[in-house]
Amino acid sequence: MGYNKCYTMLASKKILFDFVYDVLASRYSAPFIEQNLATFNVSEADYRDLLKYIQNRNVVVDQKQLASAKPLILNDMKVLLCKYHLGDAGYYKALNLSDAMVKQALNSLQ
Q1: Could you give the CA distance from residue 80 to residue 85 in angstroms, rounded to a whole number?
Q2: What's 25's DSSP letter?
Q3: Could you count the other beta carbons within 10 Å of the beta carbon of residue 76?
């Protein structure tokens, strides 16, 4: 699902964390995210800006691995942004919305 050397390197260098807190946090407001949490996703434009951010920090990435990790990266950026604006509760809500096991468990309870 995207866990690879490229993803691990971006995480260890705090690239995703820094990008979300330095760039995305000012693009999206807490009320917007809270109102749209169930449907909110980081955009392709945001992802392209992440790629520029990576380049500007002179971080070399394997493009194949980056493409493989893209779904995970997009999800991580979303949950980090939710944590920034909505705290731990927002982080876990966003994380659970994208977790297949949680979805299956909730469906079985209905």
Answers
A1: 9
A2: G
A3: 21
pTM score, whole prediction: 0.85
Distance spanning both ends of the chain, measured CA to CA: 28
Q: What is the pLDDT of residues 22-32, one digit of tens each?
A: 999 999 999 99
What residues contact residue 50 under an 8 Å CB cut-off, 6+ apart?
Answer: 15, 16, 19, 73, 77
- The number of CA neighbours under 13 Å toward the Cβ of 40 is 23
Residue among 21, 23, 3 at smallest CA distance from 12: 3
DSSP 3-state assignment of 110?
Answer: coil
Give me the amino acid identity at 101.
M
